[in-house]
Amino acid sequence: MLKLIPAVMCGALFAGCVSDTPIADANWRKSVENMNQAQTYNPAAASNPEVLAPEVGDGQRIENALDEYRKDVAKPAEVKQAIVFEVGES
Q1: pTM of the predicted model, to two decimals?
Q2: Integer Cα distance of 66 and 60 in angstroms
């Protein structure tokens, strides 16, 4: 009887992990694939990509975007004091 109690408790614990929405779980992958397909601007582009980048573009706009991006990138701090490593006995 004493060994039965932990077994019943473990069974109850694992029963809580069982999904209560088997139909929704079965259709999850199809739902994600449909969403990705609906959000894709040009589905044919993945199977037939362009050889070169688009020839049109605003160089100034791209330069401004890069400048803004580079402002947020952390720059290395200057070391104010020399780092000394001592190995072995002095």
Answers
A1: 0.31
A2: 10
Task: Report d(CA 86, CA 83) in Å as an integer.
Answer: 10
Both tokens assigned to 72:
């947020």
Distance between CA 90 and CA 86 in Å, rounded? 8
Going by C-alpha positions, the residue among 50, 53, 49, 74 that lies closest to residue 62 is 53
Element of type H or E holding 60: helix 59-72
Nearest by Cα to 19 from 6, 30, 8, 28: 28
Per-residue pLDDT tens digits for 13-56: 666 666 667 777 778 888 888 998 888 888 788 788 777 766 77
